[in-house]
Amino acid sequence: MTLLVLLGTVIGAALLNRTAQATDTLLEGVQPAQTEAYRLQSAMVNQETGIRGYAITADKRFLTPYIQGKKNEAESAARLRRLVADRPELRDDLAAVERQAAAWRLNYAEPLVASVTPGKPKAVDLRTVERGKEDFDKLRAGWADQNTHMTRVVEEGRAHIAQERTLRNSVLVAMVAAFLLTGVALAVFVRLLVTRPLERLRTASRRVSGGDFEYVISGDGPTDLTALAVDVEGMRRRIVAELDASHAQQRVLTTQAADLDAQAIELRRSNVELEQFAYVASHDLQEPLRKVASFCQLLEKRYYDKLDDRGRQYIDFAVDGAKRMQVLINDLLTFSRVGRLTDDRVPVGLDKALEKAMMNLGTAVEESGARVERPAEMPEVVGDPTLFTMLWQNLIGNALKFRHPDRAPQVTITCETDPDEPGSLRLSVTDNGIGIPGEFAEKVFVIFQRLHSRDAYGGTGIGLALCKKIVEHHGGRIWLDTEYSGGTRFRFTLPVATAPDETGTTSEEKALT
What we know:
By secondary structure, this protein is an alpha+beta fold. About 70% of the residues lie in helices and about 5% in strands. It folds into four domains: about 1-180; about 215-270; about 285-335; about 345-510, 2-Layer Sandwich (Heat Shock Protein 90), CATH 3.30.565.
C-alpha cells in the first residue's frame, strides 16, 4: 500500500505538472502573443491612417499617429518576439510582417512625407498612392497569415490542455480504483493471515483462562503472531508451574497451620501452667519467705544481746535477703501480668495518667525538690490506664532516683507528632541526672540488669524492662537518646487514638491485633 501511495503521488504530481505547464503555455505565452500581434497590426494601421491624412491635408498633426504607431510597433514587435521565441513558425510570421512594414515605409510612407510641404496641400500622385496601397495590401496579407497561425496555435494549446486534463482525470480514476482494489485485497489478506489466527489464539487463551490449563496453545499465520502464540504458551506453562508450586505451598501451609494450631494449644497449656506458677509464686513461695523473715526478726529481738557482731550480721543478711526475694517476686509478677491479666482497650488521656503517677510520686518529688515540666495538654491513646500510669511512674521515678548529687532534679516531658510514623506520638522524658553511657543503651531494658550496686541505688532493675514491655504492648517502641549529654533522655512512641471504623475497631486496635 505504501508503494502504491508513493507511485500514485509521483504520477499524480507529474500529471498535474503537465496540465499546469500546458495551461501556463496557453495563458502566459500563446494568448498574450496573439493579443500582442493585434496590437502590432493596430499600430501599423495607425501609421497608414496618419500618412494618408498628412498627404491630403499637409497638416503635421496627422504625423502624430504615424510617429506613435512606429513606436508602438517597435514595442509590440519586441514583446511578441520574446513570447514566440520557442515557436519558429510564429517568429517567421513576425519577421515577414516587419519586413513588409519596413518596405512600405521605405517605398511609400517616407517618400510621401518628404514630398509634402507642411501647410501647402497638393494633389497626390495616383501612382504613388496605388503603389502604397499595393505594399500595404501585402502587409495585410502577412497579418492574415500571422493571425491564422496564431489562431491555430491557440486552438492547439486548448486541445493540448483538454487532452492533458482527460489523461489526468483518467489516471486519477484508475488510481482511485487501484487504491480501492488494493484495500479490498489487503482486507482479505488481513482476514486470512491475521484475523483468523488471532481468533484461534483468542479462543485458545479463553479456554486456558476458563480453567483448562493443560490445553496447549499453538500458533500459525505471520511470524509476529506465531511469536506471540509462543510467548502466550510460555506464559501458560509458567502459570501451570506456578500453580503447581502454589498447590504444593498450600499443602505445606496447611501442614504448618496444623502445626501452629498444635503449638497454640501447647502455648495455651503453657500459659495455664505459667498462671499456676504465678499463683504459687505469689502465695506459696512468699509464705515461707515471710516466715523466714519473721523468725529471723524474732531471733534478732530475743537473742540480739547474746550474739556477737558476726551473728547479728548473719541475721541482718538473712532478713535483708528474704525481703529482697519478696520484692523480686512481686516485681516479676508485675512484669508477667502486663497485657495478660488486664488488657483494657479504652481511650486514655496521657495527661490524666501522668497526674496519677505524679500523685504516687508526690513524696519523692517533695523530698528531692524536683521540678517537673510537662505539656499543658496531651492527646488520647488507646490502652490500659493502669499500665500508662505505671509507665510514667517508672520513667519519672528513675529520674528522681538517679539524680545528680550537686543539683536538684529537673524533669522535662515533651509530646509531639512522630515525623517517622504518621498517626503516632513521640514522647520524651528528660532529666539532668547522672546519665547513662551510650554502650548500655540496650542493656538497661533487660530485666534485672543493673548499672550500679544496691548500696548506691536501690531497686531490682526491672523498671525499664517493664516500661519497654508496656510500650511495645501498646504498639510503640522505646529507646535511650544517646545523643543527649546533659543527663538522661528516654524517647518512646504511641499510636494516637482515632475514631472507630464501621466494625467498631480503631486503627490502633487493628495495629495491636
